[in-house]
Automatic annotation (TrEMBL):
PROSITE patterns: PROKAR_LIPOPROTEIN (PS51257). This is galactosylceramidase. It comes from Elysia marginata. Residues 509-679 form the Glycosyl hydrolase family 59 C-terminal lectin domain. Belongs to the glycosyl hydrolase 59 family. GO terms for molecular function: galactosylceramidase activity.
Length: 697
């Protein structure tokens, strides 16, 4: 016993003395210096460089927070704390939202503040609510707004929003003014047109319109597209140079172009991440946050998206910092990217400056990277180190070239203003990929510096924050409720909403749907009258659609009481079952679609939204006013009822076998839905469950 203990001590001493500083699980820090290790200099004596402008996230682009707003209030507040409350969770510093344009922008549509040139409204959708919740928690959060598309009248019959730059700038500035006057929200940044061409004349017109309306402090970030080409324009145009605050590129893969850096403009990854938020997503985000600066000098990084709060069978499921897609159960998940974000945001306030490369900012020789930042007085210091391995930090795009990471010990040397620091607080995460829970954002013993030196043992897939700040908290709310599937019976007559709200759970994919009070009655109105200046091809079909429910459903019934207004009405309406896709692919949606055209008295059942695969044609009485449409899909049959009279019964086509229920219109134009009901037989949902269980055998 005694012998072996002594031996261990001797081995340990030998181990230090011989400089074989390989990392051991139980010993994170080595007190004695070892030669032959990488030295990381933290030194501000040659000055500090670019200012940190924040880490943020996007709600929208599109409808990514759709399901968040109808969470029970307690859970909703908890989720908002994890995202926005300073020193609690992600503590986001920038909040970017979509300026709704009545068009599909990835996972749904968001309403415009001006569906038509003759009206204006600042109570639509949920982004206003979310902006206020963010600002309530963090008054210093920077707000950033951007359009993905525009209502049709902006394009004057084209898909070009720059056809009349004054008109478009006026439309955007009205939204910014509405934010200010109606909601007391000040926009810090505004963008141009998401991932679509920019137009220099428009950028200049926007600046001028902002200035004329008193929004001199709302700065332009441009172009919010892939690549850095705007830098060339900036180089040749002094006026443009002056009015663009930052060049914002999407998914830069941590790299920026020389010609962009040469402009001396702030460079932003104004949309990044877009990766499934499992542990690899956490790794992607950790590598991106550090290396966007190390490799690309980017001083702000913004995640698409904020939170996975949309139906999981829509495109890019769970591409948010956390997940909350079950308002009916209240279940949510605080995913690893929340704590990865906290490693920087909780310890680097806006405006701190990066130290120079190789004086605090560099790649590590055995893989990974570090950044160091300090405040104006240079009496505070934060260092963030990440050692994400290649396969554990792959993002959705661009391709990640191969590289190696291995455990390493580094010697940190503090000089300049930091020479006298005797210890740094330590926050630590390790991402774990074997199914065990990752260790996220844990406070460790401080790292003690002797004569400005300390050693740190780094494993693989780890994050360290070393900081003089004594703040920092791993916020915790009670364990969330258990998950449960979408309810099997849903009825809504829209009486519980304020006018202009978007009803819960119904997720518009084309068109814009809002509650209206018409003759004292609440209806859900499809409002879009013409094809918008669109962002993706779903709009090219000319139909509108809103989905609801569970994509695994095979049997289901949907009924709706519909009415087509006499003025500016659509030509037909539908209810549908087994709808297999949404997002930018909505125009290709397959399913069972029951259309009626009350004005011509036609009825049509099709296998697709485009109405190219006709399953049945018939007639209905040609009467205006309210009508009840009901589509019931059982194991093998589709049955339709019109005003409670059966109008068809037919064998189901082979595909699709499952999908959402939906309602919609055959063309742009008004349609009022007075109520809808969804019923799913218990057996059908049991089928899903038992087939799931079978998969395990
Ligand atoms: C508007 O917001 C500012 C902070 O952004 C706050 O100081 C002010 O009290 C708010 N005004 C109103 C009327 O709520
Ligand atoms: C997974 O890895 C962690 C640490 O790397 C280890 O503690 C744990 O035992 C492992 N779990 C399994 C199931 O292999
Ligand atoms: C859909 O139903 C299945 C089976 O009940 C369930 O596993 C899944 O979580 C449900 N999804 C949603 C979005 O409700
Ligand atoms: C709306 O539905 C609720 C129950 O879901 C019912 O109590 C109410 O009477 C209905 N209102 C109208 C106007 O149909
Ligand atoms: C549709 O009509 C059938 C027959 O009247 C009825 O049994 C069913 O409950 C209705 N479905 C819905 C969703 O209202
Ligand atoms: C119908 O559209 C015309 C323009 O096409 C517009 O002037 C009118 O206000 C619209 N009416 C309604 C009820 O929306």
């Amino acid at each position: 016993m005694v012998f072996s203990r002594t031996a261990t001590v001797l081995v340990f001493i030998y181990y230090l003395a011989s400089c074989a500083c390989s990392c051991r699980d139980e010993t994170l820090y080595f007190k004695e210096p070892c030669s032959g290790q990488e030295t990381v200099d933290i030194d501000d004596s040659s000055g500090v460089v670019r200012a940190f402008e924040g880490i943020g996230a996007i709600s929208g682009g599109g409808a990514t927070s759709k399901l968040l707003v109808n969470y029970p209030e307690k859970e909703r507040n908890e989720i908002l704390d994890y995202l926005f409350k300073p020193g609690f969770g992600a503590s986001l510093q920038i909040f970017k939202v979509e300026i709704g344009g009545d068009m599909q922008s990835t996972d749904g549509t968001e309403a415009s503040h001006m569906h038509y040139s003759w009206e204006e409204n600042y109570h639509r959708g949920y982004e206003w609510w979310l902006l206020k919740e963010a600002k309530k928690r963090n008054p210093n959060i920077k707000l950033y707004c951007l359009t993905w598309g525009f209502p049709g009248w902006i394009g004057k019959g084209t898909n070009n929003p720059y056809i009349d730059p004054e008109l478009t700038a006026d439309y955007i500035v009205r939204w910014i003014r509405g934010a200010k006057t109606i909601h007391n929200l000040t926009m810090d940044y505004v963008g141009i047109w998401n991932e679509r061409p920019y137009n220099i004349k428009y950028i200049k017109t926007l600046r001028q319109t902002l200035d004329h309306n008193g929004f001199q402090n709302t700065l332009i970030v441009a172009p919010d597209d892939f690549g850095w080409n705007l830098a060339h324009d900036i180089k040749n145009d002094e006026h443009l140079e002056k009015i663009v605050h930052a060049i914002g590129a999407h998914y830069p893969g941590t790299q920026s172009a020389d010609y962009a850096r040469n402009t001396r403009k702030p460079l932003w990854a104004s949309e990044d991440y877009s990766t499934f938020n499992d542990v690899v997503g956490g790794g992607c985000w950790a590598r991106t946050l550090n290396q966007n600066y190390v490799n690309g000098l980017m001083t702000a990084t913004i995640s698409w998206n904020l939170i996975g709060s949309y139906y999981p069978n829509l495109p890019f499921p769970r591409n948010g910092l956390m997940t909350a897609m079950e308002p009916w159960s209240g279940h949510y998940v605080v995913e690893t990217p929340i704590w990865v974000t906290a490693h920087t945001t909780q310890f680097v306030p806006l405006g701190w400056r990066y130290l120079r490369h190789h004086k605090g900012v560099a790649k590590l020789s055995k893989g990974g990277s570090h950044v160091a930042l300090t405040n104006d007085a240079r009496d505070q210091l934060t260092i963030v180190i990440e050692t994400m391995s290649h396969d554990h930090s792959i993002c959705v795009r661009p391709k990640l070239p191969p590289y190696e990471v291995s455990p390493q010990t580094i010697t940190l040397t503090l000089s300049g203003s930091f020479k006298k620091i005797s210890k740094l607080n330590v926050w630590y995460s390790k991402l774990i990929f074997n199914g065990s829970e990752s260790q996220m954002f844990m406070k460790r013993d401080p790292l003690v510096f002797t004569n400005g030196q300390a050693q740190l043992c780094l494993g693989v897939d780890e994050i360290y924050t070393l900081t003089t700040l004594n703040t920092g908290e791993k916020g915790v709310h009670p364990k969330p409720r258990d998950p449960s599937p979408f309810p099997l019976n849903v009825h809504d007559n829209f009486t519980t909403y304020e006018e202009y709200q978007e009803p819960f759970n119904l997720a518009p994919q084309i068109g814009s749907y809002e509650v209206r009070k018409i003759n004292g009655e609440s209806v859900l109105r499809q409002t879009v009258l013409q094809r918008p200046v669109y962002w993706c091809k779903s709009e090219t079909l000319g139909k509108t659609m809103s989905i609801i429910g569970n994509h695994s459903w095979t049997q289901m019934g949907i009924s709706a009481v519909v009415e087509i207004p006499r003025v500016n009405g659509t030509d037909g309406v539908f209810v549908a079952a087994r709808v297999d896709r949404g997002g930018c692919y909505s125009n290709e949606a397959q399913g069972i679609f029951f259309f009626t055209f009350p004005i011509t008295g036609k009825l049509m059942v099709t296998n697709d939204l485009a109405r190219t695969k006709v399953l049945y044609q018939g007639t209905v009485p040609m009467t205006s006013g309210k009508h009840e449409m009901n589509l019931t899909v059982t194991e093998s049959k589709a049955q339709g009822y019109y005003d409670q009279r059966q109008v068809f019964s037919l064998d189901l086509p082979e595909t699709p076998k499952n999908g959402w229920v939906a309602l919609g219109t055959d063309s742009y134009g008004l349609a009022d839905f007075h109520s809808y009901t969804v019923k799913v037989p218990q057996e059908a949902s049991e089928d899903i469950l038992s087939s799931k269980i079978k998969l395990h055998y």
